[in-house]
């Protein structure tokens, strides 16, 4: 009988997409000892080969379907623009691959539900790549809240944004590519609030739109269980500070770069501030890779830190925000 303490064989990864997020993901993945990138897929052979050569990846596929069909791949990281997440994930699941799909899981809740149903039917692991959930600093925040360090949580605030060059054909501004601030960066504050508020009982939003009709800036107010409030904001037209605060009846927790934090400040009523530091091993992507490995070896189909039900709730919340601000994408109706 094999020794249970013997080293596990590496988990073999395929990368679907070759943009900046794929490059950052591979950097984080290579900090994980039992991870191996064995293949990459792109829309062209040339792009796939260039990425493979840059990152010393053995196999390059010039078609997404060829990567999905690669039986030497255990799990695929879907790193495409948002509008391709649904199709690419379904393709990989149907071919028998496990999938880590970059956030947002899908363009809307209907697509997300189809992806979850496919994972259930095929018995494959599926997780939304919401790296915030897996950062060690965030694990410590959750522990402190569970221990009552700041009393009862009453309000959560989170903002994120940057000034992006306007390009009507680019992925951030083109409706056909599911552009806009909300799906690109706004998903972070929505998911952050959901982590602490649970299911939203109310959502209100206002937006400033780009000339293409997508949201360039969004302000959101959400209500959660027990009347906890969330004040959230995102932008692709202004450098909004990347700050989040969790405020309770007995103190607060303040985070900068909170979407993948390396630390935070805890303020308890009547006490000096306490600083916590959790430097990344690489760039933060390594922790979601480690979570995927952990769940695959348990033969689980989803992660308790980012379960399917949570991804579906977030997708529904994003749909509600877009309905409130009047943003739809081609094919959705309006």
UniProtKB/TrEMBL annotation:
Q: Which UniProt keywords apply?
A: Oxidoreductase
Domain (Gfo/Idh/MocA-like oxidoreductase N-terminal) spans: 11-129
Q: Which residues form a coiled coil?
A: none
> What are the residue boundaries of the GFO/IDH/MocA-like oxidoreductase domain, all occurrences included?
139-253
Q: What class of enzyme is it?
A: oxidoreductase
Alphabetical list of SUPFAM superfamilies matching this protein? Glyceraldehyde-3-phosphate dehydrogenase-like, C-terminal domain, NAD(P)-binding Rossmann-fold domains
- Sequence similarity: Belongs to the Gfo/Idh/MocA family.
Report the PANTHER family cross-referenced here: OXIDOREDUCTASES, TRANS-1,2-DIHYDROBENZENE-1,2-DIOL DEHYDROGENASE
- This chain's protein is named 1,5-anhydro-D-fructose reductase
The organism's lineage is: Bacteria, Bacillati, Actinomycetota, Actinomycetes, Streptosporangiales
Gene name of the encoded protein: afr3
């Amino acid at each position: 009988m094999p020794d249970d303490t013997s080293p596990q064989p590496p988990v073999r990864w395929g990368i679907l997409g070759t943009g900046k997020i794929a490059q950052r993901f591979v950097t984080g993945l290579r900090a994980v000892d039992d991870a191996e990138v064995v293949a990459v897929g792109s829309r062209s052979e040339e792009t796939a080969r260039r990425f493979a050569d840059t990152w010393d990846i053995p196999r390059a596929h010039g078609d997404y379907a060829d990567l999905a069909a690669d039986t030497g791949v255990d799990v695929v990281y879907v790193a495409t623009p948002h509008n391709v997440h649904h199709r690419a994930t379904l393709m990989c699941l149907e071919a028998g691959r496990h999938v880590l799909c970059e956030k947002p899981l899908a363009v809307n809740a209907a697509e997300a539900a189809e992806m979850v149903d496919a994972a259930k039917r095929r018995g494959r692991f599926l997780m939304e790549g919401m790296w915030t959930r897996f950062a060690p600093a965030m694990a410590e925040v959750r522990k402190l809240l569970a221990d009552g360090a700041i009393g009862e949580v009453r309000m959560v605030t989170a903002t994120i944004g940057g000034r992006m060059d306007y390009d009507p054909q680019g992925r951030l501004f083109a409706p056909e590519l599911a552009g806009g601030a909300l799906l690109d960066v706004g998903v972070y504050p929505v998911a952050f609030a959901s982590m602490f508020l649970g299911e939203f009982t109310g959502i209100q939003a206002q937006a400033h739109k780009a000339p293409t009709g997508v949201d360039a800036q969004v302000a959101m107010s959400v209500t959660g269980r027990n009347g906890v409030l969330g004040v959230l904001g995102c932008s692709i037209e202004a450098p909004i500070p990347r700050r989040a605060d969790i405020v309770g009846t007995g103190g607060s927790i303040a985070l900068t770069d909170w979407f993948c934090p390396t630390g935070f400040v805890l303020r308890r009523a009547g006490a000096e501030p306490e600083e916590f530091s959790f430097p990344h091993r690489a760039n933060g992507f390594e922790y979601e890779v480690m979570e995927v490995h952990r769940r695959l070896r348990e033969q689980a189909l989803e992660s308790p830190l980012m379960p399917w039900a949570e991804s579906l709730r977030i997708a529904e919340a994003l749909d509600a925000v877009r309905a409130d601000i009047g943003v739809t994408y081609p094919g959705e109706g309006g």
